[in-house]
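Re: beginner question about structure tokens

> Can someone show what the tokenized structure looks like for a real chain? I only ever see the sequence side.

Sure, here's an example I had lying around. Input first:
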Amino acid sequence: MSQTTIPRAAVRGTASGVIFMAFFGTLWAGIGIRGMQGWEFLVLIILSLLIGVILFIGAIGLIKNSSQLSNEVIKEDRDRWRKKNRWFGIIFSLEGLLIAIAAFICVSTNHLNLFVPVMALIVGAHFFL
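And the corresponding structure tokens:
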């Protein structure tokens, strides 16, 4: 029975993804909760911040503990991840550009009330790619 060794880069990449999602997940939760009124607002804001902080601390723990792992990577895996990371960068950059354009259009046409739904459509569209 062979044992699989997970490379340091894979663990750190996962931890970076957790940090990324903790930040943006907390941001989106705050945007969604913003419209609430009453006691639920405070409870949900605190809960979303708490979840974001826990995820962030867990990711930092992963990064610290990954220093004990080797960084050996199979060439095929390295090439596959390089290609996936390139597409991630392209899609994320395009998403940011489209959000900036949407903000400009919404402000220019005095329809700022449409910005959050348009931004949610742009962010949600990348799940289909």
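Each token stands for a local structural state, so reading them left to right follows the chain. The mean pLDDT is 85.
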